[in-house]
Structure of FAD/NAD(P)-binding protein:
Amino acid sequence: MRPSLVIVGAGPRGTGLIERIAANAPELYDGSGLDLHLVDPHPPGAGRVWRAAQSPLLWMNSHAEDVTMFTDETVDMAGPVRPGPTLHEWAGIDGRTFADRQLQGAYLRWVHEQAVAALPPSVSVHHHPRRALRVSGPREGRQRVWLEGRPRPLLADLVVLTLGHLDAELDDEQRDLAAYARAHGLVHLPPDFTADSDLSALAPGEPVLVRGFGLAFVDLMALLTEGRGGRYDGDTYLPSGREPVLLVGSRRGVPYHSKIGYDWTGERPPLPRFLGPAQIDGLLARPAGFDFRWDVWPLVEKELGFAHYHRLFTVHPERTAMPWSDFEEKYAVVEVAAEREALVASAVPDPRDRLDLAALDRPLEGARYATHEAFQEGLREYVEADLSRRHDPRYSPDLAVFLGLLSVYGQLVRLGDIGGRWHGFFSCLASGPPGPRLRQLLALSRAGVLRFVGADMEVRAEDGVFRASSPTVPGHSVEARALVEARLPEPTVRRALDPLLRALHAEGVAESPDGLLRVDRVDGRVLDRSGRPHPRRFALGPHTDGRTPGAFTRPRTGGPAFRQNDATARAALEFLGELAGRAAA
């Protein structure tokens, strides 16, 4: 019987795994054949998020030159490097373009086709356009993967879950809000993928409360403005009259920071420096474990500060008050945050050249405006200043911090589930919208189509409406008959609507403190509640405690997802190779 591998999820993560299987097979697999089954109701490569059937108004939030599905020598992996084109090289477009998701989907489909073509001739690939319902089978025997609408299961020697982003059941607050909306004839749209949301109930000219100021909001903004016939004339928005009025707020109360709009030049900061493999090994070796706030965050701060000041001192020395060698020596030994701040103040005269992570993360902390209108003007000024700085190479230490964030993420993946603070902070600084999107946001604000609510936005269901307020504008509130939760569902195992994950939860897989599927740090094998890795089940992606910034990445930045894909592919091939060898003996 031919060995069989089932991959559940044929989007970018599944494609990346297939690419690594093809790259490593010549070394690790010389079996007589292999059946590789892909299970996904959506087209292979693009998957759900990058499918062709979505609005061309929805963009990627990365430059086309910063998107690749191929490894390079910066990826720390045992397998061979198989280079390939970035999105902009493949599509023949300007590298600074923010491509739409349809084009990215076409790129991913092409990568998938190339990966399949690179597999050994003895590997047969079968796509099953169905949902996987559950996995059964003994730990030491063949697994059975049950598919929707198919009476007989797929038999698998190994199963790899690369499920991507999934829907989730409502939490207690969302259930209460949904019930209130039904009882009072209101509209409540819970966390969802914006491209999949039915926005038809959001009436023209009517106020809509929007909670969430990240990328899901940016998609919502595009679909409810240009998507309803409005258009931009330079920095002016010309409404169609079909737009609702968006009243947006969030915990931070501001949009994510703009994507940086200039290229890197010169020497890169030598990273990692203060948060590298040795420090991660030390944290993992602690018998009592570690606390993110007290044990990990100080290392993150110091690493990002090093990236920032390395760039400032080496490229803009005229804005510093001591030689880099002196600063670096002192910076390396200082441990207390207050002492580090004193060192920076003595060496960097202009506060605008100092790295203040707290202010970057929560710019409205403590800010108070006397009136709603004053806040509108104040937040427009904030966004304009952020846009200006993020497109000015005189502040290139900001780009060094971005590179530092990527380096830090690559290290923190080894720690597993460290809570939501890091992921939110990373997204705010490194995964913000394209500059043109923020210019559109400013135009919509000036046109009155979009209004800002403030930080720590509180939503209440009362008096037959939804009402929102914020301490940013004391004593002021806004109300609407519609509420949109502009964020993705939480990727927890317990609340996932995906039947396969729910079945695994019922079976007894291990969960992280935040409800993510626990996996082995080395190769991605699924762990049970006693910590044992399952010999025949693997998992990669955002539903695991080994989640990474994304299934694709910026070239020459290490690509944590690529490293994981390679480790899982090699473990799978070694297992299947041994299995084939025993069968032939």
User: Anything to note?
Assistant: The first helix runs from residue 12 to 28. The domain at 4-168+490-584 is CATH 3.50.50.60 (FAD/NAD(P)-binding domain). The first strand starts at residue 4 and ends at 8. The mean pLDDT is 94.
